[in-house]
Design a protein that fits this description.
Layout lengths: L10 E6 L2 E6 L10 H10 L5 E4 L8 H6 L3 E5 L3 H13 L6 E4 L3 H14 L11 H9 L15 E4 L12 H11 L7 H4 L2 E8 L4 H16 L11 E9 L2 E9 L4
Parallel strand pairs: 3-4, 3-6, 4-5, 6-7
Antiparallel strand pairs: 1-2, 7-9, 8-9
InterPro entries: MeTrfase_TRM5/TYW2, SAM-dependent_MTases_sf, TRM5-TYW2-like_MTfase
Protein name: SAM-dependent methyltransferase TRM5/TYW2-type domain-containing protein
GO molecular function, one term: tRNA methyltransferase activity
Length: about 260
């Protein structure tokens, strides 16, 4: 980025999904054209789920979700993104719901499930709107606490140029978890969380894109990815340029 005139100051604040995001535009990535995709995924996460964002940036998924009482493990390798992620967590007052990490994406995928087992999110009071607070006060009731939770329900990988490549970290991680906890009465997401991975394809036609993306995802995951698998969805996010389409592939981690 080149400064043509004016003050050399790229720190900006923008609002999205009832959250404020401050960052140095020169040093981190932000694209307002992705606001609908941010909203789509944020709305798919439900209290009291836990989401792990492998490439969290400055928090466009984590912070609005946390305001909906979804707890987050938010990771980004870029030190500047990590700095502003922490700033935005504090400024939006969601630090009870978001834990931040500055790790390589593969390392984060391999460590996150076990970090959560060692240190679960504890029982806590949910975030309430003023209307909800008034209703509870009028009814002389206390809010239902968010429960202790020690497993990840969803992973997000929003780095479309290379995110598919990180699928290779899931098989060794979740194969070990599946083998160790095969005889326990655990929720499905404990051993087989959902994964939402953004990617590019030259194919604008959904049928061609399905073939292309499923083949690449299969190669990296080490398991066949196909429309009939559990949790499968391929969502067209936007057209980036001629012969460059952005998609989000969603699937549930298979039984390895």
């Amino acid at each position: 980025m080149e400064l043509l005139a004016g003050v050399d100051d790229y720190i900006v604040t923008t609002k999205e999904l009832n959250s404020l995001f401050t960052f140095d535009f020169k040093k981190v990535y932000w694209n307002s054209r992705l606001s609908h995709e941010h909203e789509r995924l944020v709305n798919s996460f439900k209290e009291p789920q836990i989401v792990a964002d492998v490439m969290a940036g400055v928090g466009p998924f984590a912070i609005p979700s946390a305001k909906n009482n979804v707890r987050f493990l938010a990771n980004d390798l870029n030190p500047e993104s990590f700095k502003w992620l922490n700033h935005n967590i504090k400024s939006n007052k969601v630090d009870r719901f978001v834990r931040s990490f500055n790790l390589d994406g593969r390392e984060f995928i391999k460590k996150a499930p076990f970090l959560l087992l060692d240190e679960p999110f504890q029982e806590t009071t949910p975030s309430l709107t003023q209307k909800q607070q008034k209703e509870l006060k009028h009814a002389n009731k206390s809010p239902k606490l968010l429960p202790i939770r020690d497993y990840i329900d969803h992973f997000i990988m929003n780095l479309p140029a290379s995110a598919l490549e990180f699928l290779d970290a899931f098989k060794p991680t979740y194969k070990a978890i599946q083998e160790k906890y095969s005889d326990t009465d655990r929720p499905l997401s404990f051993t087989r969380p959902m994964v939402h991975v953004h990617c590019f394809s030259k194919a604008a036609d959904m049928e061609q894109a399905t073939v292309d993306i499923c083949q690449r995802a299969s190669d990296y995951l080490g398991h066949t990815v196909e429309p009939k698998m559990d949790g499968y969805n391929l969502h067209h996010v936007r057209s980036v340029a001629p012969n460059k389409e952005m998609y989000c592939l969603s699937l549930r981690i298979p039984k390895f």
